[in-house]
Amino acid sequence: MTNSIGEVLNSDVVFITGSNTTAGHPVIGARIRQAKERGAKLIVADPRVIDLTSDADVFLQIMPGTNVALYNGMMNVIISEGLQNKAYIEERTEQFDDLVKAVSSFTPEKAAEICGICADDIRAAARLYAQADKGAIFYTMGVTQHTTGTEGVMSLSNLALLCGNIGIESGGVNPLRGQNNVQGACDMGGLPGDLTGYQKVANPDALAKFEKAWGVKLSDKPGFTLCDIVHKAGHGDIKFLYILGENPMVSDPDLNHVEEALKNTEFLVVQDIFLTETARLADVVLPAASFAEKEGTFSNTERRVQRVRKAIEPIGKSKADWVILSDLLNRLGIEANYSNPSEIMAEISSLTPSYAGITYDRLDQLGSLQWPCPTLEHPGTPYLHKASIARGKGLFKGIDYKPSNELPDADYPFVLTTGRVLYHYHTRSMTGRVAGLNKISPESFIEINPVTARNLGIKDGEKVNVSSRRGEISTTAKVVRTIKENVVFMPFHFAEGAANVLTNPALDPISKIPEYKVCAVNISPSDRVSDYV
Length: 533
Known about the structure:
The protein is an alpha/beta fold and about 525 residues long.
């Protein structure tokens, strides 16, 4: 996030796009509702009628995969009506002409036709956002999980820069992280081309610094993304695979292919706190301790680093992740003689400029710190780009709309989009063990519009077959008015009736994120003889 969660309370306009915030991030959803009560205007763009729709001043129920068309339509209105922040654009941005050229043909009427909404609603949303002194954008994987996800994020950056909302309090472009401490994992080099703090392995100076600190020779070649790894494992190119705290047998697209790839891997190790669907396929399972059984830090979605303190000793033979990894390093001949996570944090601070001022002592004194925090005297950074844009000037990128990789046809006439429910977390490896949560949300389901259901002869609560070009599942129909005709929705949490058997593994060419949010499916009642595979 460029800004902090609490700042939303003073935002004039909040634009939520591709995020069912109260279900996926309920604490932040509550803050947004507080902002609304304090007078903020709210714009919501989503393929479904979500909980926050009832609070929205403008609701844009767009077709899945049409985000870029919507944003371009809004920017067309802002520029054509002269609502852009001209002084900000002149002083703090570059290549504005590229943006003007790209959005000039995206009239509200054109964007509305692509998105399946009303042109006047696009105008209303554009004017509301542009005329606010402090406009905050919040988005999640409804923007990123497309073959054009990177371009969707760039378009949101264009929109924020156009109206001068980068580098101000209560504004910004704010991605909400999908899992606990996923921000921290990325910060610590959990990306194929990065060392800690997003220092690139291809940077000779950064590589030399880490080689000196660790006493080893490091590769300057970026690694593979998760989807690349699964693909290569399926072709026998990956011989050894070590999976930590991830459950791709539920969370990855095209699960039939994932299972085939993992079974094809010669030696599979899984480190996790429970025996997940993925761990059941492993040659070796390393039992990890949960958050309550270890010391450490989490870095949350607003870049806030916080201490985690052990409440109980690890159960059974489980160990903290850092203990397991240190033991493995030592057995491989690489010294990792840490006695406490505070020593690891000290090493992080010494090698990572954005974390240089973060220590256990400071965290104990202050409670938390937000990076970048470059010195021991620095108070942390609530919002980014205050004095200037980090790269010098904000860069406008002219982005054209591209359709999703897989669109409906005669064989698969419906658009499936996926997401979360409030009551379960990711692949249910934890929440699926809670009786109360399972009582509220016990099984996979598919949301279907009443008109679509009637045309298919499907009733609420009955079992249906759902198929795509990747496979077929059985799930329960939930007939609702919160989704458009010929669009259907499934939560991805469930291993039985798994939505990701169906989803498309086509990737964004830049981020390599799969297109979870759009694929073509067919649906029929379960008692009907299926004529597809």
